[in-house]
Amino acid sequence: MNIAFTLNGKPQELTISPNEKLTEALRRLGVYSVKTGCNEGACGSCVVNVNGRAVKSCLMYAAQVDGGCVETVEFIGSLDNPHPIQSALVEEGAVQCGFCMGGLIMSAKAVFDKNPSPTDEELAIHLDGHLCRCTGYEKIQSALRKVSSGAAS
Amino acid sequence: MKLIAYHRPAALAEARHLLRELGAAAMPLAGCTSHSFVKGDEERIGVDLAKIGFDTIERADGGFIVGANARVADLQAHRAPGWVLDRVALRFVSQPVRNMTTLGGNIARIFPWNDFPVALLALNATVTIAGEEDRQLPADIYFDGQPARHFKAGDILIRVFVPDVGAGCGFAYRKDTLVSMAFSRLTAAVWLQREGKTIRDARIALGAAVPLPLRLELVEEAVVGKVYSAELIADAMERQIAALRWRSSDAFSEEYVQQLARAHVPDALEEAFRAAGGGRK
Known about the structure:
The complex is a heterodimer. Chain A is an alpha+beta fold. Chain A folds into 2 domains: 2-74, Beta-grasp domain (Ubiquitin-like (UB roll), Roll); 76-148, DNA polymerase, domain 1 (Orthogonal Bundle), CATH 1.10.150. Chain A has helices at residues 22-28, 73-76, 84-91, 101-114, 120-126, 138-148, and strands at residues 2-7, 10-15, 47-50, 53-56, 69-71. The longest helix of chain A has 14 residues, at 101-114. A 5-stranded antiparallel beta sheet of chain B has the order 4-5-8-6-7. Chain B is built from 10 helices and 12 strands. Chain A binds chain B through residues 1, 18-19, 39-42, 44, 47, 53-56, 58-61, 63-64, 66, 107, 125-130, and chain B through 2-6, 8, 29, 32-33, 35-37, 46, 48, 50, 73, 90, 93-97, 99-100, 180-181.
């Protein structure tokens, strides 16, 4: 079957299998920031934003985004021009292997898009679907707190 | 399960027609977050209900009409006097999953990890199924076994009426998991009406630790009309525990979940009793 959607701001058409998950379809399109970790909705490394909401792409059929808008971390910043969330994570030393970061940044972006100054509790609630094995979470929290306070570059 | 075709009808009538035509080959899709856990390679045709509407939460006389396509994140974000499902939603897996799972999807088929059946049982909700005629089923009937038996080909769960928790009433919810977003080992929900120190009425529901969600009728019978007493509740819990069939797994024994019930159900009763006395609803 064929689907059409907006991927990172550009129109995208794709032939998919009805059973194909969004994670697989995105990686087939070369969107390699979307990682398959647990493949059962637990780890959060596959999180992308669909129509402004953070979702686990390993649990979503690609067919479900037909007509929708998908954003991944490739869209929001680059090495030369990082998003403030990305800058803060780097500045706070919150990134080590980076496997979880694409998904985590997209969840954080969904929060900040709705509320530029979320509380620690709100951040914790909205990021509870992400597992990071490297940094412990404290540095991630302090980086996001920095964004929330407007101190991120 | 493997999807071999996918349809996304734009209206209820179209969805009902498709489901009737496809019969047993059809798999209604209402969020899809459970599909990764459905074993086997059975081939099915997906009928995605996401575009047929029924995704709002509206005030109604004595409660709320919740569309079956309302996502758990919508229940979490909703605020209104007498609305308590935000508390259940907040404990549901994780935010990205709450952004995907719908209320209808969570109650159309009962897996041990479904969280909303216990809350809806305790709150005495009513489920509406669209068929040849719309049918309204009280939660006690709807959840008395797998809900599939209430659906004929072409029937679709469209909304749930959730009574509000009014003055003199309280609600409490407990969910026990190994880690915060793990599947439930036990869920318990209590709705309670209080008059002074007496429990005037109560609905107590348990899930996950038992094969299907159910009401703790022995505990309800023991406490209704009585002055609140921790000893009374503890005694009733022992009788109830002995009367139930419990679920176990490689990760926990029957004795363990029974112990969870001994801890969580009385705690939830106490919280609901305090709330009914003027504290948190």
